[in-house]
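User: If only I could read backbone structure tokens as easily as an amino acid sequence. Underneath my words sits a plain record pairing an amino acid chain with its backbone structure tokens. This is the protein in question:
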Amino acid sequence: MGIWGLHHRRRLVSGIMAVVFAVTSAGTSCAQGVADLPAPGSMVALSAPYHPPVLAGMKIHPDDPFRFDFILDKGDMGHGVETQNFASLREDSTRLIKYFLAALTVPEKDLWVNLSPYEKDHIVPDAFGQTEMGRDLLAQDYLLKQITASIIYPEDEVGKKFWKKVYAKAYERYGTTDIPVDTFNKVWIIPQKAIVYENAQAGTAYVVESSVKVMLEGDYLALEKNSNQTGATITESTHNETQELARDVIREVVIPELEKEVN
């Protein structure tokens, strides 16, 4: 496989997967600044289908190891790029390259952000927090929480479906719908897969397919705990029955919508 295949390929996958997450959340372009984020408590709707610019591949030069040629998929901005979209596309592509370089230099274990209200001292690793990618991922995590709360609003389409199923399950299990339901659930986004085509002779690599996965925190932690156990079953830690009832419906109704949104 050679030096590229063993070392650079793993780093390329890590960087591109982080980019995929950073630019496809919440129907915003990667150019959206922190100042443009919706106020806390605002309703944030699911976005219309949109294909943002993404890094599709790169070329390395063995005789000049610090030179990279990046291959850009212009996405929906490719239409009319010679005129009004050129400046915006150039800005976005520069940002994507910065994301990639950040993912290349920051240790893989530090490529995360966390806006849990219960972990104020565990928001972002110091070095990653100083990068534009770290800042933008925090903004996307904020938007993710806004969307998660918005889509279970009972007056909207997904929210109506969610609460209808919650009440149906509650009545089936307890004979009443007058029960407390915990709808505060932390959601994780993790890389799911990336397929990379490599041409070692030409020094090029292309990401031909990539996706991310959305999970409830309990499921993610269980997956981490059981990843090395054959035949392990993913279950959440002990919760009371009404909390688990809501989580069951979130997995069934909300998680698929979020996963569609971020991909």
Observations:
- The chain has seven helices and four strands.
- The longest helix spans residues 2-24.
- Strands lie at 54-60, 68-73, 187-199, 204-216.
